[in-house]
Amino acid sequence: MKRIGRHACGLVLGTVLLAPLSPAHAGVMDFLFGSKKGAATAVKPDAHRRTWRIGEFTAIQLVARESGSAPNDQPVNLSPDGLRQQLAVVRTTVKGQPQPLFATDELNDLVEPLSQALSVAGPGDDVLLLSTSRRGESVFAAPLGLTARIFAQGGSLNVIVHDARLDFVNAYIGSHITPQFDFGTRARASGVTLETPSAATRRGDWLAIPIAAAAKPAVAPLAAPVAAPIPLQVAAPAAAPAAAPAPAPAAPAAARPRDAAFYEEQAQRLKGLKSLRDQGAITEDEYQQKRKEILSG
Known about the structure:
Blueprint: H1 15-18, H2 26-33, H3 37-40, E1 51-55, E2 58-64, H4 80-88, E3 91-94, E4 97-100, H5 104-120, E5 125-133, E6 144-153, E7 156-166, H6 169-175, E8 194-195, E9 200-203, E10 206-210, H7 211-215, H8 260-278, H9 284-296
Antiparallel strand pairs: 1-2, 2-5, 3-4, 3-8, 5-6, 6-7, 7-10, 9-10
Helix pairs in contact: 4-5, 8-9
């Protein structure tokens, strides 16, 4: 059996994937431990695609939306960088302590295929996500899964998380029993608690991220340069030599406007930097140096 890495190659979405498989379940093993070549094509446009295999035990799939729910406002085009910025600041509570919902490298792998899935999803589709990562733990720690249901509706990207830290990989390797996952539902809350400064919380496990915020990354606009005025040259009478004109005062440098999005971006960068220090990923000196750079910028 292949070695389990940071992610897993495929996703078993209950009966959605089990229904077409043979009784021998060979397809289940192929789906869970298949080649990672699927990840290389994750960003190629394909209106008929329904599944994105990203890594070991990590995948995205389009399924029929929940029965009785209103049609979704899809397809929707979201920037991968915008998605990354919005999801990077989401926190969940683990053993009484807030932690990032996604690891940084995990999120980097997810945003491109998630953006594509939402761009081809229809009003009758929900997006299911299974992502598995060690989430900053040691290389000896078991990968932990995250399951979520995602859909665009009411001007927001809705993210319902059922499991934030699901321990299933070792049990599957030992038993070969196909895992069954829950992905969150509109009907009832899970035990997950989510927090973020950039989105509304519809329920403890349910975030509503503004579509406009995820459509493109927050970048402070640059002011147009202002040209210095050109002094007029006035000819002096022939009887007297003309005095040299006084130099025109230099135009002040154009100031870069600071809007709410700019300050929010800097706050997110500072929070992320502090999280890296708290996790031991960077030293205190590195933290202080980078903090000064962000504040002086």
